[in-house]
Amino acid sequence: MERVASALPYSDANAFQKTVRRFAASGPGSWLFARVLHHIDRPVYRLSGGRRTLASLLSGLPVVMLTTTGARSGAARSVPVLGFPTDDGLVVIASNYGQDRHPAWYHNLRANPEGQVEVAGVRRPFRAVDAEGEQRDRIWQQGLRVYPGWSTYERRASHRRIAVFVLGPL
Predict the structure, then answer these.
(1) pLDDT exceeds 50 at position 2
(2) Rg (CA), the chain
(3) What is the pLDDT of residues 6-41, one digit of tens each?
(4) CA atoms of 126 and 3, how far apart (whole Å)
(5) β-pair partners for 168
(6) What pLDDT is recorded for position 38?
(7) Percent of the chain with pLDDT over 90
């Protein structure tokens, strides 16, 4: 699978990027981003030829375009999500900014784990595996070094388990 650029650890982000990441983890920031950011990211992604999103430009985080099959509709659904490389493969975390519910793409992957991911303008098919146990714990810790806001989301969404998906090649 095409590798996404390595994820910039929080410790290496510049002051502006750290501020954006902290705001995204805050209550008002996560509320705003959950409702607005994907509407802005999609056109920015198209205009940049699949290389950037507003979120990636502002935060320094690697954003990929995830295409899943709708669990109920059966229609293809594309959404920009934070995706970071690990030794296990490309990882996406279904935090939904710590909102009460899982993101729609979580349900889509549970119903149909095959999809496509676009990284740097290159589309690749994948099969998603929900990481469990030690693998999930290890990947979660790697993710927190990139985006510590996931720990805030985990506390906020303590009533549900935030899924960690590894997207492996087909």
Answers:
(1) no
(2) 15
(3) 678 898 899 999 999 999 999 999 999 989 998 898
(4) 13
(5) 127
(6) 84
(7) 74
Give the whole-angstrom CA distance, residue 111 versus residue 68. Answer: 10
- On whether the CB atoms of residues 165 and 91 are closer than 8 A, the answer is yes
**CA 152 remoteness from chain centre:** 15
Given its phi and psi angles, is residue 19 left (phi above 0), alpha (psi -120 to 50 degrees) or beta? alpha
Alpha-carbon gap, residue 114 to 125, rounded angstroms: 7
pLDDT tens figures, 49-96: 888 889 888 998 888 999 999 999 999 999 999 999 999 999 999 999
Name the average pLDDT for the chain. 92
Two structure tokens written together for 129: 């595996």
- 75 and 126 in contact (C-beta within 8 Å)? no
Scan for tokens 């699949």, then name that residue: 50
Q: How far apart are CA 124 and CA 53, in angstroms?
A: 19
3-state SS assignment for residue 42:
helix
Closest to 8 measured CA to CA, from 17, 16, 88, 168: 17
Calpha distance 25→28 (Å, rounded) = 8
